[in-house]
Amino acid sequence: MSLRLLTHVEQVAVHLRAELLRRRWVGELPGEDRLGAELDVNHTTIGLALRLLENEGLLVTQGIGRRRRIVLPENFAPPSLRVGILLYERIDEKTDYMVDLLHRLFEAGHVASFASKCLVGLGMDVQRIARFVERSENDAWVVVSGSSAVLEWFAERPAPAIALAGRRRGIRIAGAGPNKVPAQKAAVRRLVELGHRRIVMLAREDRRRPQPGLMERSFLEELEACGIATSDYNLPDWNATPEGLIQRLELHFKYTAPTALIIDEMPLFFAVERHLAHLGFLAPQHVSLICLDPSPAFAWCRPTVAHINWDSRPLVQRIVHWANNVACGKEDRRQSFIKAEFIEGGTVGSVSGKR
Predict the structure, then answer these.
(1) Rg (the chain; Cα; Å)
(2) I need a surface site. Which of 63, 183, 205, 344 has the fewest CB within 10 A?
(3) Are 156 and 133 spatial neighbours (Cβ–Cβ below 8 Å)?
(4) What is the pLDDT of residues 40-60, one digit of tens each?
């Protein structure tokens, strides 16, 4: 049997066919000039490739100067993936954007589900996570807020994965999440403007070790830029359990009480606010509180909660697009960063009058 090599025109047609079948374009195909520029081929080559697709019935001409209409096979069904969503904590599955992601993946034809275990439950331990993932029948993974070691392991596997937030910078893995650094810096500067000097960030151990993550480093750097010398006081160690959180708060507020707390996650924010109220510290009268994530629950809070806000819709769209790419055999390791902004709510105030 002889092997026939594809011509240049046929190679272009193969590429365009794959893009059509994965529904990159809907309704009409872009014009020949745009396609030729994208693929770096001349007008003759792109025209001949498109005519091959017309002969297959995938494209229909609509007259001179008009774009070709896309006609997919009548019984065409795009390939689907079994997507496992490996949450940071079980509570994450209740967030609005996680529910939306699950539904959008289903709508795109994929079989998506939350994994039976989470990263915190697995101790953020690469070996335990590896054993759990390798026993799974999922084709691809969405990994939520993974450590750098965990994401590096997923990046080296043949099965595709995308990091939803987490310590993904510098790792060759697809990713999507908010870019909260500029908003966090704005929050720190606002606290300093209001007279705060004793500013503390509460972040979990995987965000602090083996070295502080990007958010934590930028927090310390912004304090230094504002003339505040930093130490373990500003980014303290604590045991990431309810008991460990209470112990850390009581130690901090027993001696040199912070005037402002920046709290990494919404569940931690409510736990901190509740326990500080028990200790007699209210926001913003005695301490300013800022959460680094949004929550629909904040709309019901009085005073309103100072937080970092970001639109989850582009994040969900990016992950669904990644799943569609992977299902069609296309490698996709692009990382997307969504703009975030600091919302100064009623839990932030000046230092005057504080304990």
Answers:
(1) 25
(2) 63
(3) no
(4) 899 999 999 999 999 988 899
User: In angstroms, rounded to a whole number, what is the distance separating the alpha carbons of residues 121 and 149?
Assistant: 16
In angstroms, how far is CA 138 from the centroid of its own chain? 20
What is the tens place of the pLDDT at every residue in 296-343? 889 899 999 999 999 999 999 999 999 999 988 889 999 999 999 999
Q: What are phi and psi of 36, to 5 degrees?
A: -60, -40
Please say whether the beta carbons of 164 and 154 come within 8 A. no
Q: Which domains can be identified in the chain, with CATH numbers?
A: 8-70 (1.10.10.10), 82-178+312-338 (3.40.50.2300), 181-309 (3.40.50.2300)
15 class by beta-carbon count within 10 Å (0-12 exposed, 13-18 middle, 19+ buried): middle
Task: Give dist(CA 76, CA 335) in Å, integer.
Answer: 30
Separation between Cα atoms, residue 301 and residue 83, nearest integer Å:
35
H or E, element range at 144: strand 140-144
Residue written as tokens 């001349």? 42
Q: Tokens 């993932």 label which residue?
A: 133
Cβ within 8 Å of residue 179, ≥6 positions away: 337, 338, 339, 340
pTM: 0.76
Residues 206, 212, 218, 220: is their CA dihedral positive or negative?
positive
3-class DSSP state of 16: helix
Q: CA-based angle 253:259:260, to the nearest 5? A: 105
Distance CA 279, CA 286 (A): 11
